[in-house]
Amino acid sequence: MKTLNAAIIGCGAIHTTHVEALRQLPAVTLRAIAECNINRGRQLAAEYDCQLYHDYREMLWDDAIDVVHICTPHYLHKPMILAALAAGKQVFCEKPAVINALDVAEIDAALLHAKGTLGICYQNRLNPTSIAIQQQLQDGTIGKMLAIKAVLTWSRGGGYYTDSPWRGKHATEGGCLLINQAIHTLDLMQWFGKGVTRVKGVVDSSWLADIIDGEDSAMATFAFANGARGLFYASNCYTTNSPLQMEIHGEHGLLQLEGSELWLLRDGARQKLASDSAPDGSGKSYWGVGHREAIRQFYNAVRDPAAAKVCGIDEAAKSLQIVDAIYRSSQLRHWITLEK
């Protein structure tokens, strides 16, 4: 098996999850990191025994690098994806791929001429509970889906934004709560409901209004392509990070995601189906444990494109479209119909 050389651009909080995932993959080596903070970069390069680049564009000239991981602030994702694809690299990027849904077309155009592929990290689709929900729906366990509701209440204090000034700004984050913390929940809801056709939503800012120029809370109602309706509420104003609460109501029962555990309620009985708890205690309990699997699947796709299981730009665009629709609905105060 050929050894694949990886590089990571951006050494913020999430990059360590990528490093740990790479260490568990056979025939994969972390060759380089690109980090604009020189002192931090030197420390990490020594720890990882890899090369340090101050400018990621210089790193892309290294022909030995096969795969590039993009772990930078949101507004840098698009130019870095385009540059890495132009350099012939395989690219794995943290969400969102872009901060404007209209920019998806530019990424699509670049992929038409690229040697490499692009994977976007929507790791929550790979949580054991998410996989179990999808399987239950496919099997028809609860009959026709009637509705989905989801509640996401996390805590983000002032320091979270002031320590990383790109956060909380439309120009650099693309919004706030919806495009960062809640986008995975929106993605799961549309995935289970086979797409969203209409949205009516409201965004607002309360506790964080003096710190951010985006929303810290949002609610929305959805019409799904499978005929179900959706109810959604999310906020960064809680005092702790609670696991996602989700319930799917079907003709013959309920699927309930509570405290990272999935339960089936049917015929007066309650059965546990799956859990997202990591056996080794790694990862953040409130966002699941799917990162490792997402990265593993991407490398499998690099080695064997025919067996690819990767969330690409077109799948990633679906949740971006929903985020954009909620923002527009909140401004216009009416339903927004999503284009197919």
Automatic annotation (TrEMBL):
Residues 133-255 form the GFO/IDH/MocA-like oxidoreductase domain. Coiled coil: none annotated. It comes from the Bacteria. SUPFAM superfamilies: Glyceraldehyde-3-phosphate dehydrogenase-like, C-terminal domain, NAD(P)-binding Rossmann-fold domains. It comes from Citrobacter sedlakii. Transmembrane segments: none annotated. This is Gfo/Idh/MocA family oxidoreductase. Residues 5-111 form the Gfo/Idh/MocA-like oxidoreductase N-terminal domain. InterPro entries: Gfo/Idh/MocA-like_OxRdtase_N, Gfo/Idh/MocA_Oxidoreductase, GFO_IDH_MocA-like_dom, NAD(P)-bd_dom_sf.
